[in-house]
Write a structure and sequence with these properties.
Number of domains: 2
CATH class of the largest domain: Mainly Alpha
Helix content: 55-70%
Number of helices: 12
Oligomer: single chain
Distance between the termini: 66 Å
Number of strands: 0
Shape: flat
Largest sheet: none
Strand content: under 5%
CATH superfamily of the largest domain: Tetracycline Repressor, domain 2
Length: 238
């Protein structure tokens, strides 16, 4: 635990003790680093206090309880998303946004799950949401633009949250792929055989296995965008 002015025989200020000031920004930055190392759900306020060399009460004073710190971490992660250029066509705009979002979210395990359950705060997501919904409105989605935005955003967050969990269990994923790949010659279950062949081809190709999460994400994103494009065609009556 940190040096503290509250203990006898120690300097009465952090400055005198040679310790940096504890600020909300420093607390959130430390929580962000703990999240990158351990995941959003796997660190405690006591660990966070140790990281900023202070008592847990100092965290409460500057930011609040653990939930308040977590909310601040999620807001900061959302602030890392780079916004695609506004002039891009709607599909290119969302493809770029979600590709960049996945890169950011993957660095901070657990944030995608939190967003899937709670959604973002207006403060953190206002600019992104505004531009995304306007891109959909300009494309012709009309009153459905907000619902389409929510659908696509949830798709990405849910996918990345599953990816977070799978990365933590990569050994089990590899073992399961071996088992699933053992049924590719089953004549009585041709659908299972096709799935087994697909999993076997993936598991025996080192390059594809290394790129598994990227491939799965790209496929899910493109199929989601395909569905939205089909809905746009229906709205326009084409």
């Amino acid at each position: 635990m940190a040096n503290s002015a509250a203990l006898p025989g120690r300097p009465r200020s952090r400055d005198a003790a040679g310790l940096p000031a504890v600020t909300p920004d420093r607390i959130i930055a430390a929580a962000l680093e703990l999240t990158a190392q351990h995941g959003l759900s796997n660190w405690t306020l006591r660990q966070l206090a140790a990281a900023v060399e202070a008592y847990p009460a100092v965290i409460y004073h500057h930011v609040g309880d653990r939930d308040a710190v977590v909310n601040a971490v999620v807001d900061r992660v959302i602030g890392m998303y780079p916004l695609p250029p506004a002039e891009l066509p709607w599909r290119d705009w969302f493809r770029m946004l979600f590709t960049e979002q996945r890169v950011v979210l993957s660095k901070y395990p657990g944030v995608a799950r939190r967003l899937s359950v709670n959604g973002p705060t207006v403060h953190a997501a206002a600019t992104t949401v505004d531009r995304g919904v306007r891109a959909l409105q300009a494309a012709g989605f009309g009153d459905e633009a907000p619902a389409i935005y929510r659908f696509l955003a949830n798709l990405v967050c849910l996918f990345v949250s599953v990816e977070d969990d799978q990365r933590c269990r990569s050994d089990m994923l590899a073992r399961n792929s071996v088992t699933w790949g053992e049924h590719r010659d089953d004549p009585e279950l041709p659908g299972l055989a096709a799935m087994s062949e697909s999993v076997h081809a993936l598991g025996t190709d080192p390059d594809r296995w290394e790129n598994y999460f990227n491939e799965q994400f790209d496929y899910a994103m493109e199929r989601g965008l395909d569905g939205v494009a089909a809905r746009l065609a229906a709205i326009k009556g084409t």
